[in-house]
Design goal:
- This protein is of the alpha/beta class.
- It has 11 helices and 10 strands.
- Helix 1 links the parallel strand 1 and strand 2.
- The longest helix has 13 residues.
- The protein is globular, with a radius of gyration of 16 Å.
């Protein structure tokens, strides 16, 4: 499958590498490839320059958001939640129409320091905002309740016996995303329902952040026991 991963941070890099490793044709989307590759030094998350990462992953492409989205069959929104709508606007509504849009972003607000709060919650969610802005896209919310390392290697904790959620209005799109998750090693995937159920998944982030602080590690996730 041709997949565009929008975002060059830790999440985008982790998912891009893992999906390419599964045999998919992956292109990373960015605002300006030349500027992105020219950056030196580590970023805010202490990741090395993207130019070094691409040297280690020669099979993965790099393109502007619109070009990456146009050429793909499935789009992954791995951007910062506060920037997601702007990035998707750059990708272009026509390039998103009809495609599965896997949204893994969280609407975190860092403007008042740490810990961050949610930009949207209770009666709305980032995933719903994306679906409303791009009604022809088939938005599926998933993987936002875990750190990037667990997204692509769930076996790092509890032998992989923890839960991933999917929310979306399109049943076939959710099946496509569930298949990708299964290929990545996720064995417990719960379909929460339509896109409105993404509110709950996004609102898990405050407790997730508290758990990170209490346990001293982001290598944690939720397990639904039933």
């Amino acid at each position: 499958m041709k997949i565009a991963v929008l975002g060059t941070g830790n999440v985008g890099r982790a998912l891009g590498a893992a999906l390419a490793g599964q045999g998919h044709e992956v292109t990373i989307g960015t605002r300006d490839p030349a500027t992105t590759l020219a950056r030196v030094g580590v970023d805010a998350m202490e990741s090395p320059p993207l130019s070094e990462w691409f040297t280690e992953h020669p099979g993965i492409g790099l393109a502007r958001f619109a070009a990456a989205a146009e050429a793909c069959e499935l789009v992954v929104n791995a951007t910062s939640g506060g920037a997601s709508l702007n990035v998707l606007a750059r990708a272009g509504a026509g390039n998103l129409a009809g495609k599965v849009l896997l949204d893994v972003a969280n609407p975190l607000d860092f403007s008042h320091g740490m810990p961050p709060s949610l930009l949207v919650c209770n009666r709305d969610s980032l995933a719903e905002q994306i679906q409303r802005a791009y009604p022809a896209a088939r938005v599926v919310k998933s993987l936002n309740t875990m750190t990037a390392a667990l997204m692509v290697n769930p076996g790092l904790v509890a032998g992989g016996e923890h839960t991933a959620f999917v929310s979306g209005n399109d049943a076939e799109a959710k099946k496509t995303v569930t298949a990708l998750l299964t290929d990545l090693g996720h064995t417990d995937v719960i379909d929460l329902g339509d896109i409105e159920t993404a509110r709950g998944a996004e609102m898990l982030l405050p407790i997730w952040l508290s758990l990170w602080g209490a346990l001293g590690t982001p290598l944690l996730n939720f397990k639904i026991v039933r």
